[in-house]
Amino acid sequence: MLLTPLEFIGQSTLLSPDKLLELHFELVSGKPTYSLQFSNHVVLKESHLGFHLKDGSSLVDDFKIVSQETHSKNEQWETVWGEERYINNEHNELLIKLEQVSTKRLLDIRFRLFNYGLGFRYEFPEQPNLGNFVIIDEITEFAMAGDHIAHWIPGDYRTQEYNYTTSKLSEIKSLFKKAATYNVSQQTFSETGVQTALQMKTEGGLYINIHEAACVDFPTMHLDLKEGTFTFSTHLTPDPLGNKAFMTSPRPTPWRTIIVSNDPRDILASRITYNLNEPNIIEDTSWIRPIKYIGVWWEMITGMSSWNYTDELSSVQIGKTDYTKTKPNHRHGATTAHVKEYIDFASEHGFDAVLVEGWNVGWEDWFDKRKDYVFDFLTPYPDFDVEEVNSYAREKQVELIMHHETSGSTRNYERHMDKAYAFMNKYGYHAVKSGYVGDILPFGYHHYSQFTNNHFLYAVQKAADYRIMVNAHEASRPTGVSRTYPNLVANESARGTEFQAFGGNNVNHTTILPFTRQIGGPMDYTPGVFEMDISKLNPNNNSRVNTTLANQLGLYVVMYSPLQMAADIIENYKRFMDAFQFIKDVPIDWEQSVYLEAEPGEYITIARQEKDGSSWYVGNSNGANPREASVDCHFLEKGKSYTATMYVDADDAHYKTNPQAYRIEKQQISYETKLKIFTASGGGFGIKIIQN
Ligand code: NOJ
Ligand code: CA
């Protein structure tokens, strides 16, 4: 690969390969600081760097520069699955080596400037005066240059499953209590704290995104807005005693990332998060493959059926309870017969797999947080025959997806993990959906602490040993680690479709998620709900799905994931088989992606080319305001003709009043075509484009 020549303006100034971004590093009275500029805009004003340590010392001042190095890279790597087959990694690097004069402690800071973004991390070299140490605070600042508009969720340590609040930075504090609807204790909150990835827009039309990459063996980062300023400082998730990170040199921290452009489509197209992660370490990836699935799931989420087999037990003793003697509630979803119906439907319509939740004992007890021994991941309820359903699935060329709800008990999961994964191997499961509902056990270890993050990665590493793919719900929001471990095929880690049955998602929710949650990796959003009125499934549930049906189709393209669910119950698909065809057809792995239109909170339109194929699919998700979307077909090959099948909102569609009003139209199109498509309030569309 040809290296782009580096151009350094001064000792500690670095330019991006396209020269639009400029990073400046400076020691100001011995304090390390950095700032960032994009074209003529200030992205970050002078911002401080460093740490406070548990032993009372700090790494924030008294530094001198020992040396500095510059490097540059321009390479391309191939993905195992993804929004594209190849990713470019082109950046210029500045490595600053610092020494604290009084302590002789060494600290390196490595900056990488890409087109449209900066990543930097701290590295603690091996050294006599800093071996084992405990970080009590990271003080990394992000000094924003104005009162930007931000799409934010509250920075608590327990959940990421919030609707976004869109406000000016100065309004975060007053809106915080309203936004933080979870009733968690004050100490898990900082009242100006927000989670990353944080998407902002400046008055001058610059889009700025702050997140992290490769958060490995380190706590997750929230951002605290300093009172009366527009400066964020890093807020690491603590352990029960307030410690943040246990470190041994030599060690790096995760990368802190700032993606920047005046065109929001560049934020969606950025691969900085993956580029800052280590390459894939799984040699044989033949067993890692995208999956389209249905499941015995939405019926429990909506309250039509139950995960638990009986309503009688108040206390389960794993292995000791004889379920054949307990009274079934006759609402249990995961019965052998019912799962077979799902297998039949999956097989008939070309789905790869069926997820089955509530198959194993323990659900009667799973909310009891005093116990850390709720599930064993091995013992089926008496009406679920593991052997029979799996061999039936095999006959029908479908697989089952295992479900491990851990009830947040990391120790319990770890002590059963080998047996649980071996059990999966024995019966032919290749993918597990895990979950961490409720407070993490051991008590006091929050979801996003170093300890818990290590657990999440341990589960993925162990799964790789058993050739198992992982889709972890309620785990920390991802930071691109699935580049290194591509068997981590998805996470939930944000407010998914399930909340449409728990009160609803904001109508523009999926026009924000690709700018926030998905900066770190794919989301198991579980789209495809065709019946918006949940009371039709469960008369006691008055929740509504805040989208049109056509929007649900568009999500298969907009909300990228190699693991895509068709979430609704079979009966609802049978009512709309013509629209269901789009879900059957849409690929889940892509050759390339083209970001056609985007404005966070308003709309997103994306075109993607099927991997190993010539077909294209276009998806749109629209927010509250009805709009005409433009699809410029320049992504198609010149001189070729194509048939587009368009699944669009009808003219009178509206997410509240008329969500199931859609039209399916065919049209001949080519490179020259510019489609204009009406999108309703909460609407969207999906288009399938096949070469003639
Ligand atoms: C929350 C998950 O997000 C959901 O998908 C799952 O069904 C429940 N927990 C039960 O584990
Ligand atoms: Ca969840």
A few lines on this structure:
The chain is an alpha+beta fold.
CATH architectural label of the largest domain: Distorted Sandwich
Briefly note the CATH topology name of the largest domain. Answer: Beta-galactosidase, Chain A, domain 5
Amount of helix: 10-25%
* Total of helices: 12
Termini separation comes to 37 Å
Unreliable segments of 5+ consecutive residues: 1-10
CATH class of the largest domain: Mainly Beta
In terms of structural class, how would the helical and strand content be classed? alpha+beta
Mean pLDDT: 95
Q: Count up the domains.
A: 3
**What overall form do the CA principal axes indicate?**
globular
- State the major sheet: 10 strands, antiparallel
**What oligomeric state do these chains adopt?**
single chain
Radius of gyration: 25 Å
* Count of beta strands: 37
Describe the model.
- By secondary structure, this protein is α+β, with helices and mostly antiparallel strands.
- The chain folds into 3 domains: 13-275, Beta-galactosidase, Chain A, domain 5; 287-312 and 331-490, Aldolase class I (TIM Barrel, Alpha-Beta Barrel), CATH 3.20.20; 494-692, Aldolase class I (TIM Barrel), CATH 3.20.20.70.
- It is built from 12 helices and 37 strands.
- Strands 7, 8, 9, 10, 13, 14, 16, 17, 21 and 22 form a 10-stranded antiparallel sheet that branches. Strands 1-2-3-4-12-19-18-15 form an 8-stranded antiparallel sheet, with no helix packed on it. A 7-stranded parallel sheet has the order 28-27-26-25-24-23-29.
- It starts with 12 loop residues before the first strand and ends with a strand.
- The model is unreliable at 1-10 (pLDDT under 50).
- It binds 1-deoxynojirimycin and calcium ion.
- 1-deoxynojirimycin binds next to loops.
